Amino acid sequence: MAVVVVRDWSLKMDRNRVRRQIQLVRKKIKWSQYDLAKAAGVGRTRLSLFENGHVELRPEEVNALQAALRDATSHLVSEFQHVLSEELAVVV
Fold first, then answer.
1. Along the chain (92 residues), what's the average pLDDT of each consecutive run of 10 residues?
2. Which of 33, 50, 64, 86 has its CA 20 to 30 A from that of 25?
3. What is the 3-state secondary structure (H, E, C) of the chain?
4. Domain ranges of the chain
């Protein structure tokens, strides 16, 4: 019985870590909940409830949020690399 309690607690900690990471990345890239919800195909209210720990999302919803953030951050990295290469070309 104690193992189940520890396991449930561990699972809850993993969910909380995922929740915090999603919110942190969303804020770092200056996206609103609306922006992320729209990009991921998840309701904005549902995202808000998730970020505040009031609901658990289905695995496919979490995957969609993570994919949307991954796409957004890779796009930002590509833009940064393009700007940097243009600046370096001017210097040379």
1. 40 81 94 97 97 93 94 80 69 56
2. 86
3. CHHHHHHHHHHHHHHHHHHHHHHHHHHHCCCCHHHHHHHHCCCHHHHHHHHCCCCCCCHHHHHHHHHHHHHHHHHHHHHHHHHHHHHHHHHC
4. 2-91
State the CATH class of domain 2-91: mainly alpha
Residue 6's pLDDT is what? 35
Q: Are 10 and 34 in contact (CB under 8 A)?
A: no
* 34 residue type, one letter: Y
Cβ atoms of 65 and 22 closer than 8 Å: yes
